[in-house]
Design brief:
Elements: E1 10-11, H1 18-27, E2 35-49, E3 54-68, E4 71-76, E5 79-84, E6 89-94, E7 99-104, H2 106-128, H3 137-148, E8 165-169, E9 172-176, E10 181-185, E11 189-191, H4 194-208, H5 212-221, E12 223-225, E13 227-234, E14 237-252, E15 265-266, H6 277-284, H7 289-308, H8 312-326, H9 339-344, H10 346-355, H11 362-376, H12 382-394, H13 398-411, H14 416-428, H15 432-445, H16 453-465
Parallel strand pairs: 7-15
Antiparallel strand pairs: 1-14, 2-3, 2-14, 3-4, 4-5, 5-6, 6-7, 8-9, 9-10, 10-13, 11-12, 13-14
Helix pairs in contact: 2-3, 2-15, 4-5, 7-8, 10-11, 11-12, 12-13, 12-14, 13-14, 14-15
Length: 470
Amino acid sequence: MRGTRGGGAVVPAAAAVRSLCAAAACLLPVAAWAAVALDMEIRQVRETGDAQNPKRQETVAEVRVALGGAWSESSGEGRREIHDYATRRIYDVDTGKGTVDDRSLFAPVAFRVMETANRRMIREVMAKARLGAATSEAEQQLATEHELSLRESRLKGGSGGPDLAVRDEADGRHWGDGRRDLAVASREGFPLPEKDRAAYGRWLRNAHSLHPDVVAALLAAGQVPARLEARYFNLDAPRGALTITVRALRALPDDAVPAPHATFRTAGVGAPAAPGLEALLARVSSESADGFQERRRQVERMAAEALNGGRIRDGVAAVLAASIITGDAGLGGALAGHREQIAGDPAAAALMAAIGTVPRDRASARAQADRLREARAAIPTPALKAVEANLRQAAGEVRDAEALLFEALEADPYLIGAWMDLGRLYYGQYRTVQAWRCWDAARRLAPGHPMTRDIDDLEKRLVSGFPEFF
């Protein structure tokens, strides 16, 4: 029979011999279960294209999954993916290159929440428009909940919703929408101590997604199925399929669990020389919180000296930069005593007129952005590019807004407000990984900054509302 090598007790594969799976309980004393390792084959099928041009991509990988109390790790084919639930980070490690891509665990959870709400809205619009579909509304909801591993009712802190149809057959337990199977778990499996079940559930939700009721049932059963299948649908069309075949389970003692990423150097997804966000983050990676404090003092001093010295254009530019760096809205009051000087300087007056009102709609935002672009030609400062970016985004000119924020941050990486705005731009596009990269950069440069509190609050809401992912 097939088994696994390495430290700790070994459980041989037992696809058809249920007694061998049950015997694992005798081989694994509870005290030894600091972590468990599952050796498995993961087969994934992705269905893309349309009815006229369907495309099917299938991958098969031998994977080792280790589950600890506050982390999980999937490794195979030269890569490791580590979920650190204590720090709420995900590390994608390329063992060949010795690099690790570090990203926030909040990003994929936020995407699930946003996408669940989006699909509910689309479903409601279709129902109101009486756009018929072969699948019922309940079937569509269950398919979404299954793919995103999130009960729609949880968006409002509630519970309930359409129930899965459950039936037991010779090959195991089936869960479905009454017409199609969504998941099947074999009767045979490997016993899992209660204290390790939460880690297994987190791994299933974060790595592959299953309907929350399926995950709950698997955890309640107290075993890892030897074979677990899942199917995913978009209306009536297959979206993909997953088959996890567990070959063996073994316990890992404390000293067998290495530090997950300490020996690797951090590297973003894109090469540093490539254009885009990763290149920007690479260029500012050497900046620090000490540098932020120094830049803050510098720009506040520049503003005071320029205004007191009668250099009104420099003073206006420095005050705007200081407000975006510090988040102190009260800095605008520094200009109140210089209204006559501002009115007497055509460039300064044009600038203040361009930013002095809140646009009513996209057309007024575009007109205001155009006026600001003309005005800032006489007062070249990165902060004004960040201000124009806000107006461009309000006008629906998202690419222009992104480019302006890049330019502003390349020139002055301590414009914390610009990092926050760039993150919100990505968040509005459902690009949550990029959003958190921006927000994490802002918090690294300026810990405890008032502009980052909204993101701190968002993360708290995600943890309290969806604790099963953390």
